[in-house]
Amino acid sequence: MYEMLKVERQDGLVELTLNRPERLNALSRELVRELGDFLAGIAEDREARVVILRGAGRAFCAGLDLKEAAEAGGGLGDSVASGMSSQRDFSQVVVRMRRAPQPIIAAVHGAASGGGFSLALAADVRIAAESARMNAAFIRIGLTGCDMGSSYLLPRMVGASVAAEILLTGNFVDAARAEKLGLVSKVVPDAELDAAARALASDMLRNSPLGLRLTKEGLNANLDAAGLEQALVIEDRNQILCTLTDDFREGMKAFLEKRPARYNDR
User: Fold this and answer.
1) Does pTM surpass 0.90?
2) Is residue 233 part of a domain?
3) What is the domain range of residue 98?
4) DSSP per-residue string spanning 150-216
């Protein structure tokens, strides 16, 4: 179905691989189009419960395909209007990642630069290989450091001061510092990255489908909640929705019987 994405599915898990290893998975217009198409479709995919996002070859994603951009005249379009249209194609990938009801795990190795950094930030959880290096590369090529959601997502993860340092300098953050900052959940040897991502996905998949979706929804909604009471409105609503499902009754029964739950409510 796709030329630049590899999609593998098994038992509720979708493994999505950026598949341009010869270009370090740089974001070409076609790759961005395919990502947007995949993410638009998965929003209605009731069988897909967790997504792992990774890059093929030596890197997660090296950011904008500068060679393609140079061949197109150095930008994303030949006018303000066409440039804005192309830019929105890029930024909407991040919007669709956040809107996707499935938790997205980014398995980051090698370079995650520019747009690749933003893809990692847009995931719900990031696991890093020891080789991972992340930076807001945009500012190093005459652009701003704020792109594809970086100025919104990064300060909420690491605080305003550290986010400003990263975005204003374009300096790389290695895996060890990323873990210390809370930018990634854990760091593992490169050879163990896929297994670690799958193990985390397995931990999520043992929970009910609706519970997973509404937990992501609640986290997203309450990231910008005006206060505790507004956050509780979302939490209370989602908890009551879950109590009305067969999966809640199965979860309670499985707990009391000391066995794994068998959820089937999609």
Assistant:
1) yes
2) yes
3) 5-205
4) HHHHHHHHH-HHHHHHHHHH---EEHHHHHHHTSSSEEE-GGGHHHHHHHHHHHHHTS-HHHHHHHH
